[in-house]
Automatic annotation (TrEMBL):
Protein name per its UniProtKB record: Flavin prenyltransferase UbiX
Binding residues for FMN: 16-18, 42, 102-105, 137
Sequence positions that bind dimethylallyl phosphate: 167, 183
Function, in words: Flavin prenyltransferase that catalyzes the synthesis of the prenylated FMN cofactor (prenyl-FMN) for 4-hydroxy-3-polyprenylbenzoic acid decarboxylase UbiD. The prenyltransferase is metal-independent and links a dimethylallyl moiety from dimethylallyl monophosphate (DMAP) to the flavin N5 and C6 atoms of FMN.
Protein EC: 2.5.1.129
Length: 202
């Protein structure tokens, strides 16, 4: 049994908060690690990818991260299809990441409204007690935002704000992006070479 067939997939959702480079790098890292990935991109997520990364289609995302690796690892789901596999608790996964995660998505998850596949899949992750990692990017945060983030944390989600550190003395945007992607991969319990760790020389 190879690594691909022995792992349950990671559900990765991309929504409309600013932070497309984080999402694209995370897709790239997952396929490089040969992690089966169920990808859901909301309509606002596609607009984000176009605006911030110049990627307007699945074909362009596929070519950007590596076509062969993408085809081997990634299954794309329509955000409007609430009957797709990620919507069912009986479909086993290793957890879910929403990166970037809009405050609208945080609100829907916090209140269990499940109007889309992204929101339903997150609801499933919580009810099945699986990892749910949310990467919001918003500033400033209103009290509504803070209360919703508190609610999802109490429900079992892990909130990793898109706020890269600087103690590793980054000199490029790519290093800042890798800082955040590395933290997400850590919380998925994946061994990876992304970024620099504190006290460890590159």
């Amino acid at each position: 049994m190879n690594a691909m067939t022995s792992r349950h997939p990671v559900v990765l959702a991309i929504t409309g908060a600013s932070g497309a480079p984080y999402a694209v790098r995370l897709v790239q890292a997952l396929v490089e690690l040969q992690v089966p990935t169920w990808l859901i991109v909301s309509s606002h997520g596609w607009r984000l990818l176009q605006t911030e990364s110049g990627l307007s289609s699945v074909a362009e995302l596929r070519e950007h991260v590596g076509a062969a690796a993408f085809d081997a690892c990634v299954t794309l789901f329509d955000d409007n299809d609430r009957g797709a596999a990620p919507a069912s608790g009986s479909a086993r996964t290793s957890g879910m990441v929403v990166c970037p995660c809009s405050m609208g998505t945080v609100s829907a998850i916090a209140h269990g409204t499940s109007r889309s596949l992204v929101e339903r899949a997150a609801d499933v992750a919580l009810k099945e007690r699986r990892k749910l990692i949310l990467v919001p990017r918003e500033t400033p945060l209103s009290l509504v935002h803070l209360e919703n983030l508190t609610a999802v944390t109490r429900a079992g989600a892990t909130v990793i704000p898109a706020a890269p550190g600087f103690y590793h003395q980054p000199t490029t945007i790519a290093e800042l992006v890798d800082f955040m992607v590395a933290r997400v991969l850590d919380h998925l319990d994946l061994e990876h070479p992304v970024g620099k760790r504190w006290g460890i020389q590159a």
